[in-house]
Specification:
about 70% helix, mainly alpha, about 600 residues, 23 helices, about 0% strand
Length: about 600
């Protein structure tokens, strides 16, 4: 018997209506912006976005359905330790707003990789742009698969149909409406994500017996340990690896990735962009904390029977399906509520994929196609048309790649690994770029190649070996199907104890698997941090071997304002010279003003 439930007509109407709204937003901005078919309008929303929609877009761009589905399952198995990322990411976010954003606005770039062309050279720009394209295509495949897990757990709709429908809808409104449509669609989809979580909390806390009972049960199960300061690189979550992941991850996301920076570049000034980024800390932290704590709610609800252990009855085969399973078993008698929750889950993925598609088309056009077509006349309309076609192309690639990740055990681990392989080395390059006057293009490329090689080897090893850090205890004593199986097994063993005929039917014991290489057992949370430090080490070594010399002046606009605190050349004499130049300019303006005033007086006389 198939344990999956069918959605009602009301649920399908709500899900369909949410998709129609997303499509309508794309069509609306296609019509309203028809007379403004420019590159800046399509790719950067005309640099006229206000703070609120950008804040919400920043929130849901990197936090997709993976946060709702994956983090609840991770907390269910490993405890609340993963929430420590919320200690590190606010610090990294604020630093990114002061270290990186002023540089991009001073250089007036459209992509973060365009800045690298000015700072190091075209080869560096092309290399890191290519890494970003590969990173986003891999990440999108996992993000698209997350809502498919949700639907496959609750309906008989095929995985293939789900992937195609969600991918096609997302590709359509992104290609049609551009960045402005993507950002406003993110606002709508963010509201659905929060609504989904609120509905789940209302039912979950009541069923779990209240907050006090959730706390007691979670404490007994060892789920509340946060301050684990053990220097254990193999353990899945520790205070140190979660803090470093939050800190360096936010620096990479909000400081170097076109996926997030493009939202800030859609605003008029660096001050508005910084305000939007820093205000986004509140909804991001709220969303992460809500998803993590809901894992504790599920652990209390299923305290005596892990649904995965009882998969014969529940149909749940992995812990990523716990949240969808809870939705359909608790809300299937309430018309429309299941549809609202499912819409909230896949809305998170649609927001991330649409943002990624827009960023991919922007990087391809600005960093690859336009530099290659300098000699020819590439009009604004042609640029916009090419960007739209690229969005469609990348959407098709995303749909195709999604089928390759359908066998993963945890979408949290594979999504973080895909991001981390490029994230750490790229962040190291930007650190050198905006905080140092050192480093030629050769130095950077040497460090980048060696750093990416290291993280790719480490990430591939972690995923291929599939080492599972031991989970916290999971009780299955209350599962009915397992109790029946236990009774049958006991009867079988007692019968075999009185007869020798069963000996040939007893299953053979498989030999223990060989121990994997110790580096392949490392937690996926370390891949990004290690990649950043390894790349910095190789870049520093290359700089020392080729001659430690300055390649840009101390007052270069390619340096972050933060770097002025330690870079030589901003001495007292330099400041005095700048002050005297400013005074001279002011005197010149005063003289011009006096001349104009006297001229007006003479004219009036």
């Amino acid at each position: 018997m198939d344990p999956r439930a069918n959605l009602g007509i009301t649920d399908y109407l709500i899900i369909g209506f949410s998709l129609v709204i997303s499509i309508a937003i794309g069509i609306k901005f296609q019509i309203s912006d028809r007379g403004k078919s420019t590159q800046q309008e399509y790719l950067l929303a005309g640099k006229s976005m206000s703070i609120f929609p950008v804040v919400m877009s920043i929130t849901v761009t990197i936090l997709s359905a993976i946060i709702i589905i994956g983090h609840t399952g991770e907390t269910f198995r490993y405890g609340i330790q993963i929430i420590v990322v919320c200690f590190g990411f606010p610090i990294g976010t604020v630093l990114a707003s002061y270290i990186f954003l002023p540089v991009y606005f001073n250089c007036k770039v459209s992509t973060t990789y365009e800045y690298l062309d000015h700072r190091f050279g075209k080869t560096t720009r092309v290399a890191i742009s290519a890494l970003f394209l590969l990173q986003m295509m891999l990440y999108m495949s996992v993000v698209l698969y997350a809502p498919v897990i949700a639907l496959s757990a609750v309906t008989n709709l095929s995985i293939e149909v789900s992937i195609f429908v969600f991918g096609a809808v997302c590709t359509f409104y992104c290609a049609v409406g551009g960045l402005r449509a993507v950002i406003w669609t993110d606002v709508f989809q963010a509201s659905l994500m929060f609504l989904c979580l609120i509905v789940m909390y209302i039912k979950g806390v009541e069923e779990a017996g209240g907050v006090a009972h959730i706390y007691e049960t979670s404490a007994k199960g060892g789920r509340l340990e946060i301050f684990d300061f053990k220097e254990d690189f193999i353990k899945r979550y520790t205070f140190l690896n979660a803090f470093c992941k939050g800190f360096f991850g936010s620096l990479a996301y909000y400081g170097t990735s076109q996926l997030e920076v493009q939202r800030m570049l859609s605003m008029k000034s660096v001050y508005k962009a910084r305000a939007a980024l820093n205000w986004s800390i509140i909804p991001v932290a709220t969303l992460v904390i809500m998803c993590c704590f809901f894992g504790l709610v599920l652990y209390t609800v299923f305290n005596t029977c892990d649904p995965v252990a009882d998969s014969a009855r529940t149909g749940v085969t992995r812990h990523d399906q716990l949240a969808p399973y809870y939705i359909i078993t608790r809300f299937n008698h309430l018309p429309g509520v299941t549809g609202i929750c499912i819409a909230g889950i896949f809305s998170g993925s649609l927001s991330t994929i649409s943002s990624a598609l827009n960023s991919l088309s922007s990087v391809t056009v600005i960093d690859f196609i336009k530099p290659a077509c300098k000699s020819s006349k590439l009009t604004e309309k042609k640029v916009v048309f090419i960007a739209k076609m690229l969005s469609v192309l990348y959407g098709a690639i995303c749909i195709g790649l999604t089928f390759a990740v359908s066998k993963v055990d945890s979408i949290v681990s594979i999504s973080n690994t895909f991001l981390s392989i490029m994230e750490g080395p790229i962040l190291a390059v930007y650190f050198v770029a905006v905080l140092s006057r050192k480093g030629s293009e050769k130095n950077i490329l040497i460090g980048l190649i060696l750093g990416v090689t290291f993280t790719a080897w480490l990430g591939a090893g972690v995923l291929s070996v599939g080492y599972q850090s031991p989970t916290l205890p999971l009780d299955s004593s209350g599962c009915l199907s397992l109790q029946n199986s236990s009774t049958i097994y006991n009867n079988f063993t007692s019968l075999c104890a009185r007869s020798d005929q069963c000996l040939s039917t007893m299953p053979s014991i498989d030999p223990e698997p060989s121990e994997p290489f110790f580096m392949y057992k490392i937690s996926f949370m370390w891949v990004s941090t290690l990649g950043c430090f390894v790349t910095l080490f190789f870049i520093a070594l290359a700089i020392l071997l080729t001659g430690c010399r300055d390649v840009i002046p101390a007052d270069s606009k390619y340096l972050s304002p933060v770097a002025r605190f330690w870079i030589k050349g901003t001495s007292f004499e330099t400041k005095q010279e700048d002050l005297s130049n400013n005074l001279k300019e002011r005197n010149d303006l005063d003289i011009r003003h006096e001349v104009k005033s006297s001229h007006r007086q003479n004219t009036s006389v």
